[in-house]
TrEMBL record:
Membrane topology: Multi-pass membrane protein
Keywords from the UniProt entry: Cell membrane, Glycoprotein, Ion channel, Ion transport, Ligand-gated ion channel, Membrane, Postsynaptic cell membrane, Receptor, Synapse, Transmembrane, Transmembrane helix, Transport
Transmembrane segments: 33-52, 110-131
Annotated protein name in UniProt: Glutamate receptor ionotropic, kainate 2
Recorded name of the encoding gene: Grik2_3
Taxonomic source organism: Araneus ventricosus
GO molecular function, one term: ligand-gated monoatomic ion channel activity
């Protein structure tokens, strides 16, 4: 046979990139996961606050050099508890550190949980951004025939 079959090739202009929506950074995880993360954040913050209030080892003298002072303070106020847990999520930490074994256990569990969640989010975000770049609007001749935005036809004098 004198014919050579090279298959079908289609040449078209890449579509222009659209600006991503404002909250596209939330897409790597589902809405339920974000809801549960927020619930876990609130729960751990409140639990840490209550546990620090109940533990005697969290109450310390704010001025350790003044031995005559009988006033003790707890560094885990409600706002500080929320700040401590959000700092863990953002991997920033804080100057507030748990002293009691009970609060250290809660903090270390929360740190491990945030490590897993941040790793999952980062991996999903990388996959999400890579998959967006690799998508093409036309994969076959049938896709070309189904759409109406790209004009197509034969070149005059071509085969």
């Amino acid at each position: 046979m004198p014919f050579m079959n090279l298959g079908i090739s289609i040449l078209f202009k890449k579509p222009e990139k659209k600006t991503p929506p404002l909250f596209s950074f939330l897409k790597p995880l589902s809405l339920e996961v974000w809801f549960y993360m927020g619930t876990a954040y609130l729960g751990v913050s409140l639990f840490l606050f209550i546990l620090a209030r109940l533990s005697p080892y969290e109450w310390v003298n704010p001025h350790p050099c003044d031995t005559d002072n009988d006033v003790v303070e707890n560094q885990f106020t409600l706002l500080n508890s929320f700040w401590f847990t959000i700092g863990s999520i953002m991997q920033q930490g804080s100057d507030i550190l748990p002293r009691a074994i009970s609060t250290r256990m809660v903090a270390s569990s929360w740190w491990f949980f945030t490590l897993i969640m941040i790793s999952s989010y980062t991996a999903n975000l990388a996959a999400f951004l890579t998959a967006q770049r690799m998508t093409s609007p036309i994969e076959s001749a049938a896709d070309l025939a189904k759409q109406t935005s790209i004009q197509y036809g034969c070149v005059y004098g071509g085969s």
